[in-house]
Structures are given as structure tokens and as C-alpha cells.
Amino acid sequence: MPIEFSCPHCQKLLSTSEDKAGRSAKCPGCGERVTVPPPAVASSLPATEEDWEVPEEELRQTLPGRSTRRGAAADSAADETRERHPCPMCGESILVEAVKCRFCGELLDDAAAEEDTYSETGVPRQVAASEVFENAWRIFQNKAGLLIGSWLLSTFIQFAFYLGLILLVSLLAGGQPRGNPPDAALALIFIPGMLLFALLSMFLTLGQFRLNLNVARGRDASISDLFSGGPHLLHAIGAALVFMPIYVIGFMLCVLPGIFALMALWPMGFLVVDRRLGPIDSLQQAWLITKPNLGAILLLGLIMFGLQMLGVITCYVGFIVTVPLILLMFTVSYLMMSGQRITRS
């Protein structure tokens, strides 16, 4: 027999199964914490709450017209007087104070959204390559302008820096007698310049990760996100310094171990940005995420290779679309494989 009771905060009629008695969860109507009463005393809440929770979907709102101990008609009339607004995700009319849409399940406030993200212990799940691609393509169609524009801006900044460095070295080398070896001073300019170029590329890549994460989650995203990689730069450098020897040694050992290392550890950059993890922790968590998904990652790699070939056969013009789409596929893969939500729009 289901347990039916009213939320003591908003009087919303709720229903759940009998085995959930004594457990606590947030009311889907007002978001306040309530405890499921025992069947014998369903008309009132118990004095104390249990330590563990019932998932919010377990507490579902009673359908209109259903009878309860406190009277469905009275509660329905009271509910009509409360202010409502459209759900930002599905457009259905919901209560202003609701923290979760009862139609599409979207979490509507930052605190609730935090509870729904990747847990500290990690809860990876197995996904299908087709599911990742379909979701990435759906999101890309809605945000193509922002994703393409941010990638073009990032590419332009990096190209301008590199071109400026090459021109500077060429001008300095032009003053030397022909046939002489390059001056050591040129090396002192070129080597630090290339290190700065690598740092700039990493900075912009981390910002691109942040922008893509916001887009994939349905949060506010803008070009300014492209320049938000600074706080993560040191951790990203550390992760790269740990990863590169693994990758290089793997390629030296008949190539395949290097490919496996790339497949197993690619989410480390997203973990640095999203979870603020250090170098070792980001690599460990990356392996936990990819371990159940190596088959899907291989298929996604083949899809991405096909997209790159599409860019090549269009005289590289197609890269304007294929590269931002591939970056979004990486982002959606990370979110889905690590058990996080993606936008439904």
C-alpha cells in the first residue's frame, strides 16, 4: 500500500511506497526536507529523521483529483493561489519556489544542482558511443555560433602569437652574415617564446573546457569563459608533466600502449577544470571514468577521426565545424561517463 501524506511546509499531497517509511527527502513542491511517516500515522510527521535519504523521484506529487486524508480539493485550491513560472528547461508551469521540475526532473537551483554532480568518490557509468554523439550533436545545433566563435578566437590568438614569434626571430636572424650559424641570442628568444606559446595554448584550452562544460550543462556560457583557465593552469601543467612520459614511453613500446594511455587518461583536463583536482588525483579519476567505457571511447575515436577527414576533404574549411563539434563530444563524453547531467535542450 502506498503512503500518502501532505508536506508540512507547503501542504502538497505526496505519495511513496510503504518501504520508504522513516526516510527523508526534499519535497518536489517546495524543496523543504520532509520525512516519510509510518503508514499508521501518515497524517503527521515523526519527530526525528533518518540519516539517509529517499531520492527525490521516490516522492512524487499526487495526481490531481486523487483523494487523501486531508482532502485533495482543499489542497488543490490552495495550490492554485501560489505563484508559478515556466520551467527554463521544458516550459511547463511550476511553482516559483520549486527546486526541481516535476515534469522534466531538471534541478533549478545551484545547491540542488551541486548535489546532482559528480560525487567525491566518483560514480562512473557505462555509456554508448551513439548516445554521446547524438547528445553532442543536439547541443551543438543549439549553440553552434558560440562554440565555433570561441574556437576561432582561440585559434586566431594562438596563430597571431606564434606568427609574431617567428617574425621576431626571422628579423633578428636577417642581420647575421649569410652562412653563419644562428646566434645563441636567437635561441634565448625562441625557446622561451615557445614555452610561452605552450602556456598560452594550455590556458586557452582550459578556458575552452570551461565554456564547453557550461554549454553541455545548459548553464550560462560566453566568450569570456575562454579566458577563465588561469586558476587551473598549475594543476594542468602538473598533470601534463606526469602524463607525457607515460604517453611517450607507451608509443616507444610498439605504439599501442601509447594509444591505450591516451584512451584511458584523456579526461584529466576536464577533471582539473571541473573538480579542481591535482595532477595525480586527476589521472586516477580519469582511469576510473574510462575503465568501463574503453569500447565506447574507441568507437568515439573512430567517429572523431571521420569528422577530421571530413574537414580535410573540404580543404580544411570544414574544420570550422568539425573541430568545435569534436571538442563538445569530448565534453559530453566526460559528463556522461562520470555520471553527471547534461542539458536536455
Q: How would you summarize the topology of this molecule?
A:
Layout: E1 3-6, E2 13-16, E3 24-26, E4 33-35, E5 60-61, H1 72-80, E6 84-86, E7 93-95, H2 110-115, H3 129-174, H4 184-217, H5 233-252, H6 256-265, H7 268-275, H8 279-290, H9 294-313, H10 319-337
Antiparallel strand pairs: 1-2, 2-5, 3-4, 6-7
Helix pairs in contact: 3-4, 3-9, 3-10, 4-7, 4-10, 5-6, 5-8, 7-8, 9-10
Q: Can you describe what's shown?
A:
With 345 residues, the chain is mainly alpha-helical. It folds into two domains: 3-115, no CATH class; 129-337, no CATH class. The chain is 53% helix and 6% strand. It is built from ten helices and seven strands. The chain has helices at residues 72-80, 110-115, 129-174, 184-217, 233-252, 256-265, 268-275, 279-290, 294-313, 319-337, and strands spanning 3-6, 13-16, 24-26, 33-35, 60-61, 84-86, 93-95. The strands form three sheets. A three-stranded antiparallel sheet has the order 1-2-5, with no helix packed on it. It is elongated.
